[in-house]
Amino acid sequence: MLPSKIRNFSIIAHIDHGKSTLADRLLLNSGAITAREFREQILDDMDLERERGITIKARAVRIHYKDHWLNLIDTPGHIDFTYEVSKSLAACEGVLLLVDAGQGIQAQTVTNLYLAMERNLTIIPVVTKIDLPTAEPEKVRKEVAQFLNVDEQTVILSSAKSGEGAESILDAIIDRIPAPQGDPEKPLKALIFDSKYDTYQGVITYFRVMEGTLRTHDQVLMMQTGTQQEALEIGIFSPKPEAVEVLGVGAVGYMTANIKEVAEVKIGDTLTLAAAPALEPLPGYQEIKPMVFCGLYPINAKDFPLLRVALSKLRLNDSSFVYEPETSASLGFGYRCGFLGLLHMDIVKERLEREFNLELIITAPSVVYQILTKKGEIIELDNPTKLPHPTMMETIDEPYILARLMVPTDTLGAVMQLCQDRRGIYKSTEYLDPTRAVLTYEIPFSEVVMDFYDKIKSMTAGYGSLNYEFIGHKPSELVKLDVLINGEPVDALSSITCKEKAYQRGRSLVEKLKEVIPRQMFEVVIQAAVGSKIIARDSISAMKKNVTAKCYGGDITRKRKLWERQKEGKKRMKKIGRVDLPQEAFISVLKVE
Q1: How confident is the model at residue 575 (pLDDT cuts 50, 70, 90)?
Q2: Which of 236, 328, 531, 581 is most open to solvent, judged by the fewest CB atoms within 10 Å of its CB?
């Protein structure tokens, strides 16, 4: 296959702007799938993706059209999965930039566009969903043309549902996106952009050939890990896996090599031939830093080894989360895990429960704080329970983000008030047009991580969008908020919060826990404390058993004796009684104002 006949491209857009639907339409129109095989979100393999209607993992597929081979890599749109997008773009020469004809350019559209521009990729702008009743195709086309500084006629109008514009998009991919560059005679260099674990075949590696040629049964070397394996099977996706004998420059495919150890494959590694290795590896990917941390614990302690295996397999498929073992006094053995955001955390938890049949408890999420000790040491802290005593600390710095909020102008006041309440520092307001504006704020990441995005969506009737980037740590007045159940601290419910908000948060947390903790046979006292000072308290009254139900008439002293005995029993139970906290207790921390 000649490299001049290959085109590698990605589809990028804001969340829910129709990437997966367009991918389905391109596959159908090019004949890669038949009308009988067609189903919505055909590239979304996971049940989770199909249920939520979102793409979580990037997927590759080959399309044959007009004597050309087009390699499409479908990407996610949610802000938590920007890392998946950047991985895909490294394997492409061009992108389709989708913009919804009803909503116009959104915050995540801009972020993904900048990712593509950093890599000098060819950009083909496409206005989608032009068949919707609320669509304004010409207005959005003009907006996109002005934003990209291109001629309006280069912006393609399409509807993935009806198929309008699909042929124009396929033609534009062939005409505008350059063919892959690379010398087939040079030593093999292939970029590993994804991988997954299969019970029967071991680790399946997804890669893009940059230089050289790979053949079946070649001995391959992974340059970072130094692992050598035989390429037992190589192939392409069309869209189902299809084995081939040779993959040349520009090809996107997979390899199985009976790799049983998950650690032997690293995303961003360079694949080369063991007999004639390349002199230096490809640049790979910038190491991603998790932003949100939480504890994952099995409800059944016997499942801990199974959780360890499950995390290692999932880490192979999703290199953007990290984990390390930890122990909790209230929950036993578990893992401290780092994620890119709350949606990412939720998806990983659900995948662990579904794919590995685990029952898990997830603790309150926390961000990474920097602590300067009295000795002059800087500590990075992602677990509130490990916060040193105030007398040992000089300062606590918390992470800040630069948030860009794209909102309708009639909701500006409400959104600005929300940002002020979340300790945001106002930077600027830019008007895109009479109906939309971009607000820029510096906000502590801990204030955004919980429910900020949901609040923006509800305030703006779904039209608001958020994009942010990490800008560093800044000093803040922070305290550790502990939760005590019957006088015992529950370390899994501890959090670090702003000093001026500690009382309000403690009060709300106690009220929330009172709703979700079930009643016991003894009184349960819930307290919130900062250091040794109790700042909020409430109690759940004991369940009452009618011990005098069997007494019919007679002397009252018999009933009194039974009541006294019941009271003594409840006192004894309170001393030895242990409160089992339901999963809702840990989730409730997320929903506290």
Answers
A1: very low
A2: 531
